[in-house]
């Protein structure tokens, strides 16, 4: 697995509606992918706190050969985090906690972020997603970006929601560009959710951002290039060719910022079709 893509894509299947993403199905898919043709691409399994008991039960039944790297998403309040971590840490043969992720109000401040840090062990990464405003709200967008900067400055990893069940869940290209430039300026790594496509797709009344686009956008932000152009491109071959010219240092810089992408399922076949992965 090329270093650019190693452990890049998390499985976010458990964040979907319960009737459409049963735990046993998501676990089976994740474990199969972790041992499959593109196993090196697979990162963490993302699980909301509310589904953690069911996940533990299913993993105990499946008996994985090695612990599952876990991202815990707070969906029942910060007060539930200590119990969730205790549950995970008491089952080291099944689970290894890597990140704790939570949404935050747009006016998130140092006091709120310090409270998050109190719940998260030093060897676990705290990920915080300031809520993005409605489209066409310049003042709200500025406040959102200020919150992203505060999250990074406080030592947490900002999270960017790139898509979801509603069209408004996908941010505009301009908002993604602003976010990337802000985190590049802080030097703090960030994560994403809802980034399911390898390369940007447009049509059907909406847009779906691409993993390859975002990787190239990060590289251009670090090098003073055209970030918006990278995000808008639907030319997968051209984007892949640009990646092919990167030095080892450039790859390290990109992954130092874009640490993980949440997707469902991992787009290994699509990336291989672009010549970025070997089958």
Features of the shown structure:
about 280 residues; alpha/beta; two-stranded antiparallel sheet; globular
Q: In one word, what is the shape?
A: globular
N-to-C SSE series? EHEHEHEHEHEHEEEHHHHEH
- The CATH topology comes to TIM Barrel
Question: How many DSSP H or I helices?
Answer: 11
Strand content is 15-25%
**Category from helices, strands and their pairing:** alpha/beta
Count the domains: 1
- Write down the overall mean pLDDT: 93
Low-confidence stretches: none
What is the helical fraction, as a range of percent? 40-55%
CATH second-level architecture:
Alpha-Beta Barrel
**Number of DSSP strand runs:** 10
The major pleated sheet works out as: 8 strands, parallel, barrel
Name the strands of the widest sheet in spatial order.
1-2-3-4-5-6-7-10
Describe the structure.
- By secondary structure, this protein is of the alpha/beta class.
- It has one domain: TIM Barrel (Alpha-Beta Barrel), CATH 3.20.20.
- It is 42% helix and 19% strand.
- The protein contains 11 helices and 10 strands.
- The protein has an 8-stranded parallel β-barrel, surrounded by 7 helices. A two-stranded antiparallel sheet has the order 8-9.
Short summary of the structure?
The protein is α/β, with parallel strands linked by helices.
């Amino acid at each position: 697995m090329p270093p650019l893509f190693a452990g890049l894509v998390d499985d976010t299947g458990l964040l979907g509606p319960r009737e459409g993403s049963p735990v046993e199905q998501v676990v089976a898919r994740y474990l199969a992918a972790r041992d499959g043709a593109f196993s090196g691409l697979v990162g963490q399994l993302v699980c909301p706190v509310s589904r953690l008991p069911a996940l533990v039960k299913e993993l105990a039944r499946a008996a994985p050969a090695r612990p599952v790297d876990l991202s815990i998403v707070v969906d029942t309040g910060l007060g539930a985090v200590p119990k969730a971590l205790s549950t995970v840490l008491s089952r080291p043969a099944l689970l290894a906690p890597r990140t704790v992720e939570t949404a935050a109000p747009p006016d998130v401040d140092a006091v709120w972020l310090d409270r998050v840090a109190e719940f998260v062990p030093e060897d676990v990464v705290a990920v915080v997603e300031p809520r993005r405003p409605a489209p066409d709200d310049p003042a709200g967008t500025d406040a959102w970006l200020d919150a992203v900067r505060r999250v990074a400055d406080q030592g947490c990893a900002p999270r960017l929601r790139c898509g979801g069940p509603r069209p408004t869940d996908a941010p505009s290209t301009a908002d993604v560009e602003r976010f990337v430039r802000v985190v590049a300026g802080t030097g703090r790594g960030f994560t994403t959710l809802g980034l399911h496509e390898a390369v940007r797709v447009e049509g059907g009344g909406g847009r779906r951002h691409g993993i390859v686009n975002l990787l190239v956008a990060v590289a251009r932000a670090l090098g003073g290039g055209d970030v918006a152009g990278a995000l808008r491109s639907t030319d997968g071959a051209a984007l892949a060719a640009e990646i092919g010219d990167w030095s080892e240092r450039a790859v390290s810089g990109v992954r130092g910022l874009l640490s993980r992408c949440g997707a469902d399922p991992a787009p290994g076949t699509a990336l291989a079709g672009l010549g970025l992965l070997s089958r």
